[in-house]
Amino acid sequence: MDRLLSFSKDYRKFAVTVAVGLLALVPVMISADFDNTASRWLIISWASFVGILLFIDMIKTLRSGSYGVDLLAITAIGACLAVGQHWAALIIVLMLTGGETLEDFATRRARRELAELLSRAPQIAHRLEGDQVVDVAVPEVQIDDVVLVKPHEVVPVDGILLSSGAELDESSLTGESLPVQKKTGDKVMSGALVGDAAIKIRATADAAHSQYEQIIALVREAESQPAPFVRLADRYAVPFTLASYAIAGAAWALSGEAVRFAAVLVVASPCPLILAAPIALISGMSRASRHGIIVKSGAVLEKLAAVNVFAFDKTGTLTHGNLEVTHVEPHGGLSEEDMLSLVASAEAGSSHVLAASLVSHAKRRQVEIQPAKNLHEVPGHGVSATVGTHEVLAGRAGFLENNGVEGYDASLITQGSTAIFVAIDNQFAGAVYFADQFREESRSTLEDLKRLKITKTVMLTGDRADTADKIAREVGIDEVYAELLPADKVRVVRSISGRDASVAFVGDGVNDAPVLATSDVGIAMGAHGSTAASESADAVIMLDDLSRVVLLRQISVRTIRVALQSVWFGIALCLVLAVIAAFGFIPPLVGAGLQELIDVAVIFNALRAHRSGRGTIERRTSPGAAAGNLSGTWHQKA
């Protein structure tokens, strides 16, 4: 039975229907008898089989508490077979299976396992047993076990730091690119990446209850329990079915001819309804793809058209995700260029993320970077080096204090900023400040979304509240939730959805995977984002361009508008032909042929979703640009 039901959802059903039709034509061509016995029984057998499959699907649909157009289709097939119109029955089956194949194609999600999450999850832990280091499987680690985590390894379980200090990359958990400094007694979360020095932790949770495993579990839970989705045509199934039955029943009762009942149901069969929405959705998906946006299912476009709240991750989504030098503040009479030259020279040999940004900034300003001698780096704290005739210290404020720097004044530190503090020849020389710059298109994207009737924009971030508030004010975010872990983001999105709102979330990191999978529509920035985020999302923007979110929203709205127009167009034509057939002017086989014409009309109308409408933002490519080259300027279509 499971295989039978699987086959009923497979494209092979359409292929077999085409094959049956071709095989049935062979005896007809040989005998010149359109009612050839072999052809008749071949068609009757296959049409009956498909009718049974439709009946099984209909029962399942009814049990789930919903109603579709299947009943009308089953009745039309059965009526044609009962009155000897087997070719009309085959045409109905062909249209139904073709529409079902298109629908399956438009809604099937191309999701794979979260390979990045799973491959990055540690398998082995180094447990300390006395003076011995014993490698054990991560699930064997128990609470209060002491675990050694080597440089550049992922922390296997949640714990408390026993080492004197540590520098951890928690971007997979919080999305923030800047390494986090930890001291003895601080909490360490699984999934964090250790820096250049090994650390010891005391486990406070086993693997199954640690933070990183919870991320994986949240994604799996969200994907195994997708939000309910009603097929577009099914929303109009009840009134359309009742109207069709009323016309067919009246025709039979008044004429006394059962063939009129079949003729009405043939022209009223729901083929156009089944075809209209999938073709419009496929067209919308294709149009999105032309603009570098991969939409994983047609249902995504319908959900996105109904969204009224957009939520955004901060780092890498609203911002570039890279800390850049904002300003240099020399102290004690040193020029800005001289200080920048000395500190960049000292930091050139460091592997720290801020060092790379500082050196790049110095090169852009064409500041001389001199050879450094006696370079010594204290991971997570700072570097010392001899540059020319000067001794340079650069790093955290505490690094300067511990080295007895003179002239250091804590009041000079800009609160809430990220900085490298500098001392030259043991004298405080100033600081270099950094910030994650918001994208140039962030503000305009949010303004455009509000013009598209988005009622609220929200930021969800693992960053500090003061930093998040600053970015929110600059780009025009309405509501901010800061210092969130992945589970917190899921909780916030669910609470917003519970207030009569539909939420689309836009993010890019591994830490965003659970909320991307949980939100009504998840949109991943896939150009530089993680594989896990892309696989958990419903749509992936393959270009590093946040404004594509606006275009995706517009495409979804137009696609659903065209789909609804096509559905109503199909309903109107079917009902008009049903009335004509009720008076005996359209026999079943002719009605099946007219259905083909209706299908063609509906298809052409639905294909309009592939084109842009009025008021749609598009990317204009330069003349002669190669396909796929999306560089150019934005314009608003009149």
Précis, in short:
The chain is α+β, with helices and mostly antiparallel strands.
Structure description:
With 638 residues, the protein is an alpha+beta fold. The chain contains 23 helices and 24 strands. The strands form five sheets. The protein has a seven-stranded mixed β-sheet with strand order 10-22-21-20-11-18-19, with helices on both faces. A six-stranded antiparallel β-sheet has the order 2-1-3-9-4-7, with no helix packed on it. The chain has a six-stranded antiparallel β-sheet with strand order 12-17-16-15-14-13, with helices on both faces. Strand 21, helix 21 and strand 22 form a beta-alpha-beta unit. The longest helix has 35 residues, at 548-582. The radius of gyration is 32 Å and the shape is elongated. 47% of the residues are buried. Residues 1-8, 106-115, 225-230 and 618-638 have low confidence and may be disordered.
Features:
single chain; 638 residues; alpha+beta; 7-stranded mixed sheet; 6-stranded antiparallel sheet; 23 helices; elongated; disordered C terminus
List the helices and strands and how they pair.
Blueprint: H1 2-8, H2 12-31, H3 37-63, H4 70-82, H5 86-107, H6 115-120, E1 124-129, E2 132-137, E3 146-149, E4 159-161, E5 165-169, H7 171-174, E6 180-183, E7 187-188, E8 193-194, E9 199-203, H8 211-224, H9 237-255, H10 258-267, H11 271-290, E10 293-295, H12 298-306, E11 309-313, H13 314-318, E12 319-330, H14 336-347, H15 353-364, E13 372-378, E14 382-387, E15 390-395, H16 397-402, E16 418-424, E17 427-438, H17 442-451, E18 456-460, H18 465-475, E19 479-481, H19 486-497, E20 503-507, H20 513-518, E21 521-525, H21 531-536, E22 539-541, H22 548-582, H23 588-606, E23 617-621, E24 632-636
Parallel strand pairs: 11-18, 11-20, 18-19, 20-21, 21-22
Antiparallel strand pairs: 1-2, 1-3, 3-9, 4-7, 4-9, 5-6, 5-8, 10-22, 12-17, 13-14, 14-15, 15-16, 16-17, 23-24
Helix pairs in contact: 2-3, 2-5, 3-4, 3-5, 4-5, 4-10, 5-11, 5-23, 9-10, 9-22, 10-22, 10-23, 11-12, 11-22, 11-23, 12-22, 14-15, 17-22, 22-23
